[in-house]
Amino acid sequence: MDKLKIAISFVKIRLNNIGSVLIKGSTAYVIASFGLIQVSSIVADNVDIFLTIGITKETFMQFLFIGVVVLFPIFLVFTIISKRKSINKDILKTLDKNLNHIDDQRPKIAVIPFENLNKDDDGQFLVDGIAEDLLTELSMVKEISVATRKTCFGLREKDITSQDFKDEYGFDYIVTGSIRASDNRLRISIELSDMNDDRVIWSNKFDIENKDIFEIQDEIVTKIVTCIVGEIEISSLKRANRKPTNNMTSYEYTLKGRALNQQYEKNANAEAIKMLDAAIEADKTNPLPYSWKACTIGQSMALGFRENNDKTMSDFMSALSKANELNDNDWNALRIIAEAHLTLQDFEGAMVYANKAYNANPNHPFVLWIYGRVLMRHGNLESGIKVLEKLYEREPIPMSDINTDRMNKELFLAYYLNNNYQKCDEIFNKINEFTFREWLINIDIKKHQNTEYLDDNWFVSGLSKFKELNMKKEISLFHLNDKNISSNLLNLSKEIYTSA
């Protein structure tokens, strides 16, 4: 049953956006078929069918009915394929434009965690959640560069001067503020400061009901971006398709779940699922708790909090497909779907969803992580390296990690695929704990460089550590789009252990 649920959820994701097309196509097919049958019946009444094609009128009409029924599913399959190709083509139209802007020098802004004037622990999640939502909203604007959540929240209550913000962190602007909650109302004070000359260039105070928070976020973001880059059309801030819910209970539970998710701890992960389920129960049409639930379940599998079995995968895919169904422009769901396609080695599908996630949120580190990795496997090596290098500069150690290994390992692979072996040597020496992938690739590099390595500690330790692995399976997990490279690495692994 769980396997069936997984399959159905994946199909729902694949077929998203084409349901209305199928309905219209089916309706047109039925109408056309009815018209064809009517016309054929009239023709058969006025023409001697037997003399013309050698069968009776009754047989002719029977064949016609059977043909209409048999051709219907074929027509639907053709419609699905053609529509899917059309959708993918439209999404990838923005790829070249995105790649051309990777090197753009955009103003960099940070949102410093807001001060909780109530000084209560219970309300802190709401204060942090509103600041994080503001950060996410700004991340969706391509005209500016936005500091990561980890960087921004790491600055909480630190005594940092404007010169430090500019020189040490490279911020051109910072957003600061405070929030006081009273019953169902919020009092928000906010300032936008220019670090170049240490002055406040915009400030405002809002006294609003909780339910108006999304409109105020829009107003704040629009004003901030206008102050920084001038009067521009910010299409990414059109709230019509992004306002997640009118239910504040659902919103608050979502904020709690998201905050717990970002603790990367087993008990917090389990509690996050409870909070997100409560958010879904409060408003089943709110897409955010579904996407964050999928993210949280994925986290639990990756970090070993939950067993990676059919039941867990069923829950994961169900939440993911529902998030995508409710909002097919949810950056969080899109980047997870891109990860799924990359795992399946569907590089075209991965590129489609990664590019769509980038269009939705070009500043978020989760999006940049999948975007860079997919680009380098989709034939855009240089651009993929640029994205990963930029991400490394902004957040070398992801939230759940304790060192830079994950980033360095992916850059090591990228430079290997780009035949930059000197850079690979530099990066390999920075990796604290290499896996079979880095070990095998480093051997191939040494062979290309005609460098001795058989007595090196890294080679000797790996020779013992990886000898029991299924080499073919492990190399398939490198997710390489070049079969020749995969084949050469497999032959190399066999050669190593044959001669060892």
How would you characterize the overall build of this protein?
- It contains 23 helices and six strands.
- With 500 residues, it is an alpha/beta fold.
- Among the domains are: 2-93, no CATH class; 108-241, TolB, N-terminal domain (Rossmann fold); 403-500, no CATH class.
- Strands 1, 2, 3, 4, 5 and 6 form a six-stranded mixed β-sheet that branches.
- Strand 4 and strand 5 form a beta hairpin.
- Helix 6 (124-139) packs across helix 9 (213-229), helix 10 (248-261) packs parallel to helix 12 (287-302) and helix 12 packs antiparallel against helix 13 (310-326).
- The longest helix has 36 residues, at 57-92.
- It is globular, with a radius of gyration of 28 Å.
Search tags:
Rossmann fold; 6 strands; 6-stranded mixed sheet; globular; 23 helices; alpha/beta; 500 residues
Kindly name the structural category. Answer: alpha/beta
What's the overall average pLDDT, rounded? Answer: 86
Number of strands: 6
Give the number of helices: 23
CATH class of the domain at 108-241: Alpha Beta
Taken from the alpha-carbon principal axes, the silhouette is globular
Major beta sheet, specifics? 6 strands, mixed
